[in-house]
Design brief:
Number of strands: 3
CATH topology of the largest domain: Helix Hairpins
Strand order of the largest sheet: 1-2-3
Helix content: 55-70%
Structural class: mainly alpha
Number of helices: 9
Radius of gyration: 28 Å
Shape: elongated
Number of domains: 2
CATH superfamily of the largest domain: DnaJ domain
Order of helices and strands: HHHEEEHHHHHH
CATH class of the largest domain: Mainly Alpha
Length: about 250
């Protein structure tokens, strides 16, 4: 009797460690942890009661058989309804308001650029040069081009600024009648964990789901095919790759 009681008391502990092991492997959320713990405990308790003879085996087999029969009968209908369900989910997702509060930061020698995930807007503070302490959005196209000349010796700064000018003044090359040459040496700042977190706009210890979501959100706005730039896309991809390898 005491052995059976100890077994029943040990079941929740066993379930807890099983769930924690799965949670650490698959990075589950707290809500998912609670649901899995409840289901695991329920199955362990039912299994123990069946082994001890307190519940008939049919208590498990009957619901499984009924569920299998139902699924087999309803499978053709479910397959027909699946495209409609996917369409419904897509419309709900597109109608849901996007999180416009999240933003990312890219710092270079001359600039501190901020990228807004929701709107895709870009703006930044000038850290160095003739227009230091000003916002990029307050500068005219000619002033931006002057700044471009000033920071051309720093590869990261010139690339970030060029991406900003391309986004805010798409026809600037046609308007000026020429393309400014990059005089930088082509060196880029090494990607670090801190820089990657800033670029993706994440907390200090992001999980896999948060990293992938932030990357997808940024790439939807900053991809070269959508008005972004190769440089920004490369930085965003590099930030994601580094953070995923550090998990």
């Amino acid at each position: 009797m005491i052995l059976r009681l100890l077994l029943l008391l040990a079941l929740p502990v066993m379930a807890y460690y099983m769930v924690m092991s799965v949670s650490q492997r698959f990075k589950l959320t707290p809500r998912q942890n609670r649901i899995m713990l409840f289901i695991t405990v329920a199955f362990l308790v039912i299994g123990a009661l069946v082994v001890m003879g307190r519940l008939p085996v049919q208590f498990i087999l009957a619901p499984i058989g009924a569920a299998a029969t139902f699924m087999l009968r309803m499978l053709p209908t479910l397959l027909r309804l699946l495209p409609m369900w996917q369409m419904f989910k897509s419309r709900v997702a597109s109608a849901r308001p996007r999180d416009s509060g999240q933003s990312s930061t890219i710092r270079t020698e001359f600039l501190e650029m901020e990228l807004h995930h929701g709107s895709g807007d870009m703006d930044g503070n000038i850290l160095k040069g003739t227009h230091a302490q000003k916002k990029l959005s307050l500068l005219s196209l000619n002033e931006l081009l002057d700044l471009y000349k000033e920071c051309s010796g720093d590869h990261d700064s010139s690339q970030v600024l060029e991406a900003y000018i391309d986004r805010m003044h798409p026809n600037w090359r046609e308007q000026t009648g020429k393309r400014f040459d990059k005089t930088g040496n082509g060196d880029e700042s090494a990607m670090t964990k801190e820089l990657a977190i800033e670029i993706l706009g994440l907390d200090a210890q992001p999980n896999r789901k948060q990293i992938i979501k932030a990357h997808r959100s940024l790439m939807q706005k900053m991809h070269p095919d959508r008005g972004g730039s190769d440089y920004l896309a490369k930085k965003i991809n590099g930030a994601k790759d580094l953070l995923l390898t550090l998990l």
